[in-house]
Design a protein that fits this description.
By secondary structure, this protein is mostly beta strands. 0% of the residues lie in helices and 57% in strands. It has strands at 2-6, 10-11, 17-24, 30-38, 44-51, 56-58, 66-71, 76-81, 90-98, 101-104, 108-112. A hairpin with a 4-residue loop joins strand 7 (66-71) and strand 8 (76-81). The radius of gyration is 13 Å and the shape is globular.
């Protein structure tokens, strides 16, 4: 499966963005879909995920501000980000695991700054 993220931008603190992760190929056996981010000079970190059962998990740092959703018809996973903070500045990546095989997108850049 191929993953392409989009929607990253420069936004002011307190603003909102919606990131998209477009998937191509066979996604029938998706077991896991997640969002991660890598801030400048730091390691990639977990943001949130949806598993096959539909359970959604979020990192504590984004709970109440970020929302993961999916549109299986369009094969897109979204990350809606509200109340953005400067510390949310990072490259954001989507990750999908299908039949045990993990795939990553190329990332989309989010900058939160006034």
């Amino acid at each position: 499966v191929q993953l392409v993220e989009s929607g990253g931008d420069l936004v002011q603190p307190g603003g909102s963005l919606r990131l998209s992760c477009a998937m191509s190929g066979n996604i029938e056996n998706i077991g896991y879909m997640g969002w991660y981010r890598r801030a400048p000079g730091k390691q990639r970190r977990f943001v949130g995920s949806i598993v096959r059962s539909g359970r959604i998990n979020y990192a504590d740092s984004v709970k109440g501000r970020f929302t993961i959703s999916r549109d299986d018809t369009k094969k897109i996973m979204y990350l809606t980000m509200n109340m953005l903070k400067p510390e949310d500045t990072a490259d954001y990546y989507c990750n999908v695991v299908i039949s045990g095989v993990s795939s990553w997108g190329q990332g989309t850049q989010v900058t939160v700054s006034s």
